[in-house]
Amino acid sequence: MTDKTVCGKSGCTEYSVIKQGRQNLCPKHYRFGQMRAIAKRRGLAVPSHELLHKLLNEEMKCPDCGVAMNWRSKDGMESVASLQHYRDGTFGIVCRSCNTRHAYMPNDSYRDMPKDHKYCPKCKKHKPRSDFYTDNGRTGNLKTKSHCKKCSDESIYSWREKNKEYINKYQRDYRLRRKQSGNPIKRK
User: Fold this and answer.
1) For 51, which of 23, 63, 90, 143 is 20 to 30 Å away at the CA?
2) Residue range of the domain that includes 144
3) Strand partners, 68
4) Cβ(81)–Cβ(69) under 8 Å?
5) What is the Cα–Cα distance from 159 to 104, expressed in whole angstroms?
6) Max CA-CA distance within the chain?
7) Is 170 part of a structural domain of the chain?
8) How many structural domains comprise the chain?
9) Crossing angle, helix 164-180 and helix 149-162, to 10 degrees?
């Protein structure tokens, strides 16, 4: 938006940046609307705007990891404020990284885990982050694979054992294509 209009939510004095339907909203109230809509779509409890305001701390820091949160993805995907439905029925506003960690761990155990550790869903153990391979295809601060190195290696080795014929055929075809194109693989 180009003009400086005030957010359409009563009592809010922030400038609006998003037009939603007929209403101009500030980033906070736009995100609150997203949180409520997503919770409703997933069949979860939908908190009121008043409750969301009470859950929010003044510093806009994640209560679980302490990272500074923001309202919009364009300001940092992993630190976007997200609504967390804890397993005991309570709510919280946490960063997206903590929200994602919570989804993949049993109960609320991610809160008790040291910051430099991660849960492996295959062996069901908490391990240091150094025991996980990095995943260059992911974004954010926590670019590691889901399974620990040991479980990942076991999975790869078992797949290779089961698919030896496929791998050998692929290699033969690849070498033949290289040879036909005049660029054969030189072996020592």
Assistant:
1) 23
2) 114-188
3) 61
4) yes
5) 24
6) 76
7) yes
8) 1
9) 80
Residue 52: strand, helix, or coil: helix
Residue 129 to residues 104, 112, 116, 145, Cα–Cα distance (Å):
15, 15, 6, 10
Amino acid making up residue 48: S
CA atoms of 40 and 94, how far apart (whole Å): 18
Evaluate whether residue 15 is within a structural domain. Answer: no
Going by C-alpha positions, the residue among 67, 64, 71 that lies closest to residue 86 is 64
Q: What would the two tokens of residue 6 be? A: 């005030």
Positive or negative, the CA dihedral 142, 145, 147, 152 is negative
Helix (H, G, I), strand (E, B), or coil: what is residue 63? coil
pLDDT, one tens digit per residue, over 153-185 is: 999 999 999 999 999 999 999 999 988 888 877
Specify if 136 maps to a domain: yes
Is 0.70 topped by the overall pTM?
no
* 84: enclosing H helix or E strand: strand 81-85
Flag whether 147 is in a domain.
yes
